[in-house]
Fold:
Amino acid sequence: MRFLFFLFVLSITVSCKNDTREPAPLSNEPVQTEAMEIDRPDPDIQREQSITLKQEALKSRPDEKEALQQLIISKNFQKEADLYTLDFNYPLLNTKRKASYANFNEHIEQYYVDISGTEAAILEASELICDTVRTDRFREKRTIDYKVHTINDELLSVLFYKENFYAGTIHPTYSFDSMNYNLEQSVFMTYEDFFTQGSEDTMRGILNDLLNQQIAAGEIYYDCWAITADDFFTYKNNFVVNDTYVEYFFDDCVICPSYTGTYSIQIPLERLLPVLRKYKNNPLSI
Structure:
């Protein structure tokens, strides 16, 4: 009898040692919950990705630099200082083709790019920060680049975009300036050279109609808002033109937050008929 009992105990011991299966979890709920949390998209990451895509789309916009090599001389200025880095790309016109293009070059170099003025402004602002921390906290990088188009060899339309990048930030902020230059008369053109006097409210209405269509459609315009009268007055001359549309540009957070929407609004030329100035020297006359 004792012998049989001994065999029974031995068989149970051997079977336990041979069973190598992992014990089943008491509940799968915590594992499922954790997996769901990992798979949920992070809104901050989504916003960072949207900012990057928005900025890269701007930089990769096609233009006519290569086709205009006989007219445009591309210039670059770079400087690395203790508190800042400058990297400026900008166009000058070939005065061998027309001596009167010198007024364009003077405006770009002395008033727009204004390297000495830019450096002075950065240094003046840096004085507001304690010397012991300003090198780490205030280091700034400023970049200027441009896109250029022409219409019928008569109008040169230039878009400048500026990046301001500060130490400690993830992305630069963007601002825009545009210049429209009559190549035949060697003069800069403004809003009143293209559009009728007193048409600002109508033009703003056209821009807001187009923007509201994008907002209503959803997509990437979910947090954008209408252009105010004050903002339109500020950016009234900030447009570039081509054969099919006029495109207005606005700085970061004027019509859309940095993480969504657009920097610009394109207006088809046919939508501009109510405000288009009709005279011989208007390149947009249709």
